[in-house]
Design brief:
With 200 residues, the protein is of the alpha+beta class. It has five helices and ten strands, in the order αααααββββββββββ. The strands form two sheets. The protein has a six-stranded antiparallel beta sheet with strand order 1-2-3-10-5-8, with helices on one face. The chain has a four-stranded antiparallel beta sheet with strand order 4-9-6-7. Helix 1 packs across helix 5. It is globular, with a radius of gyration of 16 Å. The two termini are 29 Å apart. The relative contact order is 0.14. The N terminus is likely disordered.
């Protein structure tokens, strides 16, 4: 769900996300089955998400955004109605949308994204002991740089052979060829990192 300190506001934000996914699908003239096929998720999941019966996980949301040829930031900002502020280059802290993965507790705060600017920035917090694997499609047509701000992060690029990086606060890592990537927090405290991306 979209993160918020008030349950009512969180439900409203989750409803906006569900409606935006429906709007993106319908704008393209796609059926739920078409979207499911393009995103690599089940039609039942698409249906439940659009009806607000299920909160999408980070992986599912990334797959849906990719099917629409949007970044995760682009989809979240459209859901928050940011289109009316497209001309703005200032991202106020109070206006930065957040999202929480219902499975892992992974939280993402969109620090900056604007249609007129080539860069995006997000801040992610991964709970102690948690891990999430994001699909290769998340890294297609974009360049990404990760900067660990606090805690420890183990990042594994799923290729042949796998390539694993153990990162500590202050470390930066640029992503290579698109592939599935596992983010794991091996420590007993949350890990917070920033991600900067640019479309190629």
């Amino acid at each position: 769900m979209i993160s918020n300190s008030c349950d009512g506001a969180a439900e409203q934000a989750a409803g906006r996300l569900a409606r935006q996914i429906t709007a993106e699908r319908e704008a393209r003239g796609w059926t739920q089955a078409t979207l499911a096929g393009r995103a690599g998720v089940s039609k039942a999941a698409v249906s439940r998400i659009e009806r607000g019966e299920m909160s999408p996980t980070a992986v599912t949301l990334l797959r849906l955004a990719g099917a629409f040829d949007l970044t995760l930031a682009g989809l979240l900002l459209r859901a928050e109605g940011a289109g009316a502020r497209e001309h703005e280059r200032l991202s106020r802290a109070a206006q930065q949308p957040g999202w929480r993965d219902p499975d892992t507790g992974y939280t993402r705060r969109q620090l900056f994204a604007a249609p007129t600017h080539p860069l995006e920035a997000a801040q992610v917090t991964l709970p102690a002991g948690a891990s999430v694997t994001l699909p290769a499609g998340s890294y297609a047509h974009i360049a990404q740089l990760l900067w660990v701000q606090s805690g420890e992060l183990r990042l594994t690029e799923r290729r042949a052979p796998d390539l694993t990086w153990d990162l500590a606060a202050g470390d930066c890592l640029g992503f290579g060829t698109p592939c599935d990537v596992t983010f794991e927090n091996p420590a007993g405290q949350p890990c917070t990192y920033a991600v900067f991306l640019a479309r190629r």
